Amino acid sequence: MSIVQKQSATDSAGDNTDQTERDDQCIDATPAFVTKPVLQADERAFLELLRTTMGDQFCVWPKPHLSDFLSLIDASKNLAVAMRLDRKRIPFLICDIDSLQPIGAVRVNLQSSPNDCETHATMDKVLGKAGLPVIHFLTPDDVEPNELQTQLADGLNLDLDRLPLLETPVRDATPRTQTPQRSLLPN
Question: What DSSP element (H or E) covers 59?
């Protein structure tokens, strides 16, 4: 190692120590930290619905950063894009349970601002380039499990036989002892 390299290594170690000291001072000056839930109540309810709908052959990962499952082929040439990927999240990522390979994303489009719409369109484009379909739902409140399952199977190109058989909701006076059947909703 040359003298220049040794000096450079010493300087960078000193910079890290200075940064650590500054970070410690900022943390000490902060009055308190509190924990908060990772998901809001409506997001948690939709996560449980997705998990029930997808069954045990898939896992549903809430709020991953895009950089957790996407990487640029040459990040050094696209540093700005790489940094944006590191900050953006997708509401729900669906993965194969054995390989944890992503197969698609789910977005719930609640009321969004125009800036959010542009961001969502950009993220959908990025996911599309990676070969991951994005399934959009307007609101999680009115989605029935069978309808959700059908839309997910169609959007993710999955055979319905890979998904669990869901009980059809009873809307009339028919007895609850009937055999559960898949919903045959039109596309």
Answer: strand 58-62
